[in-house]
# Entry
Amino acid sequence: MAPRGMGDLNVPGPPSLPPMSDQSKKRNDAQVEPEEGHAVEEVEQEDKQPSRKSDSSQSSNRARTRARTNGQTGRSKKQMNPADIAEALEESSTRHGHPQLERTSASHRWPVWALEALRTKARIERRQIADLIAELCKDGLADDEVAEREYAKACQRVNAIENDWESGEANND
Amino acid sequence: MTEPSGRACRDAFANGKGGSGKTFSVVQLAHALARKGRSALVVEVDPQGDAAERLDAGDPDRRTMADVLAPNDPCPITDAITVCGWEVPEAPYIHVAQGDYALEERMHETDKPGSQFRLRRALDELPAGMYDHVILNLDPSLGHLVQNSLAALNGDQDRLWIPVMPERNEIKGGVRMAAFASNYRPHLMVENLKFGGVIVNKADMRLKLHRQYIEAMANTFAEADQGKPVQVWEHHIPFRARLSESQSEGMPVTAFRPSEREGVVEALDKLAEVVIARGA
# Structure
């Protein structure tokens, strides 16, 4: 049956959310719980516009999304020194390797899709790094000087990716 | 609409240039379809995409499209599906196969045989008749994830839509996407891939530049499909400044005052009608 407010449409009820497969249930059960003392949830404060949803439901949904984001990056909310920041950036930029794109000889021709993937990766890396730096500064976990220095190092890594891309394009010419 | 076999029609939104309004079109089209009583599954194939967040559907307890497209031990796509959390009656009709940054890892896993067809296989495993529509949100590139998405448009009623802003780079990205899709049909085994059309997004008719580009749009795409035209859809989605804030707040367009969304809901409703009527 259609939900209230849609009865005049005379349509069937909405689809049901399928249950998780056993495979995914096992994966969820095997995930390590966060260490005690590391807060992984936070609720964003919306103060610009009056909310058109109830604050509690909006906060709970955003908290769930935020918690998942924090879990994926592996960052905790402890105070980070410059070495920690560098490690987080290193992890961010080297986690997604692309061994298939390593060249073994000068005559190896790069496929077009590989070049595009590499360029997209560089763009994504740069944006991720900028977002990470901004977030660390906003949260007071890094000062501007440290952030600027680490951002410069991270850009060097991104430039290396783009150099590879340009070499690949030149190789194809 | 659903084909006789129960397979939902698939509509993909793609442009090689980011910021052209793909996610906006996908999210709001899903809502427009739901307002008409149609169930829609939004599939996030963009690592940077935030369709799940905009639909207030993110759920850390469920899997993501990165897990669905994994080369080893992928999970069923149903494990990655969450429900729209908007407080509107039609929200339960909108489901999302959520994505995240981990999709980047899939962008380079191209060495396994059949890697280009992972998304097609995943979508084919959806229970028959579960959804009326499947809407794909593609990443702004021509890479592996886009190729996976195009390869999934193998049904007669499937369509590729190209949202563009009436500005130079976005139009170039759209032309590039159209050319790529049309040229690589055989490689992606979608010889019958069809274009839904070009959707002009964020059109500000107060700007001379926008008016000029829109007037020339049909000519720009006149030969985009291997010498044949890709139709420019006549109902442009107008630019509304207030709506740009809706993206971060995760709200339907209909939640805004009429003056803030003038013309947008109407254009999206017309797009939904086209999608529903196709093949009828």
Q: What stands out?
A: Chain A touches chain B through 52 residues (CB under 8 Å). Confidence is low (pLDDT under 50) at residues 33-80, 93-108 of chain A.
